[in-house]
Specification:
The chain has two domains: about 300 residues, ABC transporter involved in vitamin B12 uptake, BtuC (Orthogonal Bundle), CATH 1.10.3470; about 70 residues. Helices cover about 75% and strands about 5% of the residues. Strands 1-6 form a two-stranded antiparallel sheet.
Amino acid sequence: MTTPAPNVDASASVATSEEQSSSTAETTSRGRRINLREYGIIGALIVIVGLFQVLTGGKLLMADNVASLIQQNAYVMILAAGMVMVIVAGHIDLSVGSVVAFVGGVLAVAMMSWNLPWPAAVLLALVLGAAIGAWQGFWIAYVGVPAFIVTLAGMLVFRGLAIIVVGETIAGLPGGFVSISNGGLLGGLGFLGQADVLTLVIGLVAIAGLVLGQLRTRRTLRGHGLAMEPTGMFVLKLVVIGALIVFLTWVLASSAIGLPYVLILVALLVLGYGFLMGQTVFGRHIYAIGGNVHSAVLSGVDVKKVNFWVFVNMGLLAAVASVVTTARAGAGIAAAGQNFELDAIAACFIGGTAVTGGVGRVSGAIVGALIMGVLNMGLSIMAVNPAWQQAIKGLVLLAAVAFDLMNKRRNASA
């Protein structure tokens, strides 16, 4: 004799199905909110560029100005890639500007006084930056001193050391080193009219890589049954970003230097750190620590180790920024790096990184850095008083953080 299944099982099954549907809907809604925020940042950049293009009488997007915009703001993008990781993990680093000055001073001394070849001097600078990061990471991760205090001390210590090491400006650096920030790829495949063919080819390769990477990510999400953005929005995103790459490539191909070397460096860093934060265990651990450190500990995350390596990485990227900054100036300067930490932090917050940690993307920080760069260049072309430029950037930062906090409160109440 067959016994009918109790009604409670059916009810439980229905309840479970409803819970799964609710969870899926919540995940989809959260994913759409994040996507809308990211698109909003890109939209804000486009609007700001368009505004200054009109206000400057078309000067902002002149080929050489665009190349200069990238060269002048490469240090912000490099530092922001590391600062995102620091802020997502729930910390802050106030020392990066002073580290840039100190490492840049050692770099200049190594080339001019110690007669090291510039590639060897650059390698020495990277090792020194990583060692500084390890020093600060030790106090933060293993001694337990708050990052704010450790890096505030570092800001004072390394600025003082920079003044001691450099003394007077050390100029006359090797041409090969200076070209890191002032040169670019030009003429390798000839010219199409006034446009550099090699730059155009690299732009097309970048677009192909973007499309293939996004399609592969979408296929992976579908395979795991995870929420995806609507097809129309996905296609629109690819079209808009692809059009921006085409425009940027064409403008740079017409510039005096072609594709700047520092843009290639920044692109590699964005790809590498985007993969690190989004596709690796280490990146997931950083988000877990910033989201809820106690839950991360209970889940088996080695919080001390992760925090230590986050600051080692920040020191390394500060050294990379030092190389770029010193090459751009063509000299070692004790006053280099002033307010660099504020620029990097502002780029992260404008790019959507949460003040409270746990949320942030490298790509968003890069867009934030570009917004800051466009503001700087546009206001400079318009001959706005530097004091007003600082005030305007401060208001933009305040508005970005306030907008993020209001969004969080609205989502929490919903």
